[in-house]
Amino acid sequence: MSYTVPPTRTAAVVQQLRNEIVTGELPPGTLIKDAELAARLGVSITPVREAIAQLSVEGLIDIAPNRTRHVTKMTQKNALELIDVMGVLACAGFEWGVENLTATHIDLMRQRQKEFVEGLRTGNVLAAGAAGADFSTVAILASGNRELQSMVDLVVARTLRILAMGADSNLWEVWISGHEEVLEHLEAGDTTGALERYKKIYVEFRTRIEPTLFAE
C-alpha cells in the first residue's frame, strides 16, 4: 500500500481522510459533513463527496439511509473477521508470488523492512504501516494478480484504522520479527520456509490482538 503524490484532488482528499481515520484523528462515529471538510481542506464539495463515496466502498465511512455519514464503528467480531480476511488474501498472494521473487524483489523487501522499522523508531506510524504493507505487496505483485493486491489494500486500510496502534505498541514486534525471518528464508533460497513463516505471522498476530480489541 504505497502512499504517493495523488494525481487528482479527489485522490488527495481520499488520502487525507483515510490517514485521519487510520490514525484515529477522526474517531469511529465521527459525523462527516461535506461543507466543513471542503472548507478545511480547501477544495470544492465535489471531490469531498467523491472521496466519501470511495471511503464508503473501503468500509471506512458508513452512509446511513438518511444520507448522514459517520466514520465506521467496529465490533470485536467484525474486527477479527477483517483480520482473518486480511490474512487469507495476503497469504494467498504471497503463496502465488513467492516462487517468482528475484534477488531484486528480495532486496526491495529488505529495503521496505528497514523503512518499516525506521518509521516505528521515529514514531511515524503511517510511514511504517505503508512500508510494512509494501513488504507484502512486492510478493503479491510478483504473482501478477493486481486485482488481489487492490483487495488487500482495502482490507489493510480498514484494519489499520481499527487497530490504531501507536508506534510503541508491542504488537508491531510480530511483524518485525516475522518479516526478518521471512527474509532469512528467502535469502537462503527457501521459499517453502518463507511461505510458512509468512502465514505464521497472521496466526500469531490474531492470537495476540484478540484480547486487546476494544478493551477498556
Automatic annotation (TrEMBL):
UniProt-listed InterPro entries: GntR_C, TF_FadR/GntR_C, Tscrpt_reg_HTH_GntR, WH-like_DNA-bd_sf, WH_DNA-bd_sf
Pfam families assigned: FCD, GntR
Annotated PROSITE patterns: HTH_GNTR
Organism domain of life: Bacteria
Ranges in coiled-coil conformation: none
Domain HTH gntR-type stretches: 7-74
GO molecular function, one term: DNA binding
UniProt KW keywords: DNA-binding, Transcription, Transcription regulation
Protein name stated in the entry: GntR family transcriptional regulator
Naturally occurring in which organism (per UniProt): Actinoplanes nipponensis
